[in-house]
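USER: If only I could read backbone structure tokens as easily as an amino acid sequence. It would mean a lot if you studied the pair and described how this chain folds. Here is the record:
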Amino acid sequence: MPEKFVSNLEDNTIGQMTDLLNARLAGAIDLVLAVKQAHWNTTGKNFIAFHELLDEVADRLRDLSDSMAERAVILGGVAKGTLQNVAERSSLDAYPDDILKTGDHIRELKERLMAYGGELRDAINAASEAGDEVTADLFTQACGIVDKDAWFIGANAVED
């Protein structure tokens, strides 16, 4: 078993938090890939502004995934961020790979970001109930970022 770098948390709590962190890690990586799919394939009004926004969103999601993975390791677990783990653990709907219009990407991404935000809210509650306020805080910060990105993307809605 990997070394722990925390005290005052029971082993069962650490196991629960590591599982929860890996589940949300899978969702964050899934979202990065969805955002990049949209980034590469978007066309239409305000192309360059939307294209650049998606790079910024992907960067923020990568930062979140890094924090979640590191927290899992700090707790004494293993970060599970391989493609196979993401495919198995992410609960988000598969991102369509056949859309091009910016408006379609906006709808698809906003929907997934909002769904992921809901998962983060559930994770905040679970971590708090387990007594791991540090992990709960990580999920709270992540949720604020994801909510803001849902707004940034959704505010670009255009009439097709």
Q: What stands out?
A: The radius of gyration is 17 Å.
